[in-house]
Amino acid sequence: xxxxxxxxxxxxxxxxxxxxxxxxxxxxxxxxxxxxxxxxxxxxxxxxxxxxxxxxxxxxxxxxxxxxxxxxxxxxxxxxxxxxxxxxxxxxxxxxxxxxxxxxxxxxxxxxxxxxxxxxxxxxxxxxxxxxxxxxxxxxxxxxxxxxxxxxxxxxxxxxxxxxxxxxxxxxxxxxxxxxxxxxxxxxxxxxxxxxxxxxxxxxxxxxxxxxxxxxxxxxxxxxxxxxxxxxxxxxxxxxxxxxxxxxxxxxxxxxxxxxxxxxxxxxxxxxxxxxxxxxxxxxxxxxxxxxxxxxxxxxxxxxxxxxxxxxxxxxxxxxxxxxxxxxxxxxxxxxxxxxxxxxxxxxx
Length: 349
Known about the structure:
alpha/beta; Rossmann fold; 2 domains
């Protein structure tokens, strides 16, 4: 398990590379969910996702010799970008192996950050196998995208920041892919304020973590079908799963269409860009899968790396079928605690 001292150390290591992102009260989401909802906007990280935290902490814990030799990792996008960005900031050469169907804008971003990009395979597991080969062939340090204690410690800083900004938070909703984020957040929350509930959210079409948590043993989903490439993982990491069993209070499944609508809602109502793999917490709130009347709820928006083309495609589908548009103001919910207006409700300029 990971200790609080490791998390505090990670919080210091990531300074200067990863941002301390804002915790934003959302009047719109509070009304629609019937709770006091805050959004932890990890989409505002320099490379667009929480992955920069773990990547920075991991690279800073390598030896001088390991950093000089370079690193290799595998990811469908956000971890690859996190490693690429952190490596450039720390003067480390990075090789990232990505599935062949990875988002072109994420591939381009990795290259723009100075990483060498290798495209290989269909699923993340295919890319990971190739990363292992490159590590052996070229003497590169292998960095796992989620099942690594230093990565988890880096991601835990999301949880530490949430409780620093909202010490009496009742519920924290966290999207899940391989489990690194929820493991880090849950470990931090239970170390600082055990009464706060941590709830994971995952697509029903790639629900390996949900199934594993419910069955109390790792369950592999051979062919995850979700459209959210960033969470298309067959099984959770061993370390992540161990933390989930001890620290996560509940797990929720959402449909892929819920994720689509949450992306549009984030853009239209929250004025925050969210990607399919990053909006699970918002989807869970919008679909009524979270019942927390009048409670303080934090929705972690884990990433916002979505292309303009993808947003336009989602909007076109929504316009063609009004019934699928994000709901707005369905309930009369609570107001912002200090009486001020939330930023997404200000009139357009």
